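User: Hi! I have a protein structure encoded as tokens and I'd like to know what sequence might fold into it. I'm fairly new to this, so please keep things simple.
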């Protein structure tokens, strides 16, 4: 599965400013054409609409969001230009609900308050591009993105290359070795190759303030990601849901076990992994289920370059 909608990050000599600049692309001054008109107050938030739609279907986007006022289109600019088309069609009703508009206004205010937000704007919906609904086989539910510099890139438990592998992911690798003794533990924590095979790694909250864990919880991301899970639960079948820890288990409490496989364990965090995670055999159980349903299993041992 090829990744779509990749866009280079805006650059700055200071890391914090770079991250801030990438997130500001989620807002732009709306116009009645695809030409951007920049005002003094909106200059830092402006991007050219038609440039960002080079890999999205402009006709589809125009049809889905026809009739919205300029302010709403401005707030939804990031979703319109970076979310995979399949997910955009599925989630279009959520994007204009009051709770989501309120969330986008909150994020805009965060920027105006000079907060640095992770992951970069271009990566907030990377999960949607790696794993569109038609390709999903396994769902892993996380909580919120890593809040340290250069870590989060839109897939839960995964970090960008060059960043030390987080402790929870180290424990995930240990569990994999128990399931598959020939698993080659990589020297990085970048899980893109899992995502390309249909492993949706979805955080409950999709953004976080720098150095402030759970800082964007209860602002509107939770019902949005609930909608993602509800769609897969109701409209798809034969998906494996890996629910690690009480938070994920609560998030997936309504999953239909007659249609999907639900596997539960403690969280892979060093605080709890010793209480059963290493021996849960979720990876081999997931593949056994997929094969029993005529689906291609996940090659978990695909992370080495």
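Assistant: Happy to help. Inverse folding works backwards from shape to sequence: for each of the 305 positions I chose a residue that suits the local structure. Here it is:
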């Amino acid at each position: 599965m090829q990744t779509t909608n990749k866009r280079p990050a805006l650059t700055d000599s200071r890391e914090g400013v770079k991250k801030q600049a990438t997130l500001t692309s989620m807002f732009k001054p709306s116009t009645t054409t695809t030409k951007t008109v920049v005002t003094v107050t909106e200059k830092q938030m402006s991007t050219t609409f038609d440039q960002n739609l080079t890999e999205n279907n402009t006709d589809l986007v125009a049809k889905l969001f026809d009739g919205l006022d300029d302010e709403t289109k401005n707030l939804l600019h990031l979703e319109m230009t970076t979310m995979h088309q399949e997910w955009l069609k599925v989630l279009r009703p959520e994007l204009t609900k009051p709770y989501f508009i309120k969330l986008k206004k909150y994020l805009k205010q965060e920027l105006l308050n000079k907060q640095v937000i992770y992951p970069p704007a271009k990566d907030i919906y990377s999960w949607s591009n790696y794993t569109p609904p038609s390709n999903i086989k396994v769902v892993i539910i996380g909580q919120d993105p890593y809040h340290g510099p250069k870590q989060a890139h839109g897939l839960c438990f995964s970090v960008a290359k060059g960043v030390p592998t987080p402790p929870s992911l180290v424990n995930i690798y240990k569990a994999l070795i128990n399931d598959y003794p020939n698993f080659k533990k990589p020297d990085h924590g970048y899980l893109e190759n899992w995502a390309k095979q249909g492993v949706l790694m979805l955080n409950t909250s999709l953004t976080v303030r720098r150095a402030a864990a759970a800082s964007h919880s209860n602002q509107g991301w939770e019902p949005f990601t609930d909608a993602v899970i509800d769609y897969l639960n109701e409209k798809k079948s034969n998906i494996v849901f890996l629910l690690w820890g009480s938070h994920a288990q609560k998030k997936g409490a309504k999953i239909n076990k007659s249609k999907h496989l639900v596997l539960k364990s403690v969280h892979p965090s060093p605080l709890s992994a010793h209480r059963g995670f290493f021996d849960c055999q979720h990876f081999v159980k997931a593949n056994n289920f997929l094969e029993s349903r005529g689906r291609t299993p996940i090659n978990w041992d695909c992370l080495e370059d």
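A useful reference point when you look it over: The beta strands are 117-118, 138-142, 199-203, 208-209, 240-244, 261-265. Feel free to ask if any position seems puzzling.
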